Amino acid sequence: MDTREIETPTPQLIEEAIDAGDGARAKKLLHLMVGDWERNKDYSINWIAQLLSFIGRRLGEPAVEEALRDLGERFVRPRRSGPVDTRKRMEGIARGMKANGADVAFSEDDEKYELSFRCGSGGMLIDSGAYSEPKNYLTLRERGPVTFDRDELPVYCAHCSVNNEIQPIEWDGAPQTVEYPPHGPGERCVHHIYKDAAAIPGEVFARVGKKNLNT
User: Is residue 72 a contact partner of residue 167, using CB atoms and an 8 Å limit?
Assistant: First the structure.
């Protein structure tokens, strides 16, 4: 890398290569940028999982929910204020998952949109064995709303229950998305985005300790 390449944002270098008709250089820079992003993403994901594991082991599993609720109030809720068309919400989730390295499969019926994918964050940790030695991140084992009423849930995936379902129900009466995280390596994460909150099954609310008040 010369001085200009070091100092110039990679997207700008890609645009310059495209404008110059140098497709090969543009592709090379794109692959480099994706690789840099993946390394930063993996660092951040492991950072989050380790910190939540430390919190849960030092202060108890309820403290994980407290920490995630604090994130929800400070960061998540302001980003999701106001009504959003459910199609747009689904497309936003799909873009986020693709940006995270997931391969997304899409289907639709009269009631809902369905996205399934090999998750590039929580699923990546599961697939890589991060919940066993040597990383040994925390698996939550206190069955309840945070674990989707499962016997256990990888700690990183707890933001899915707390920030995407429990808190949105408390704020607006319905989950942002109904999530079914993988149980083990190689499984896909599934999201249901309902077109009408009244159509969300009662058991979806019950598993996170809530009731559907939209019916």
Answer: yes
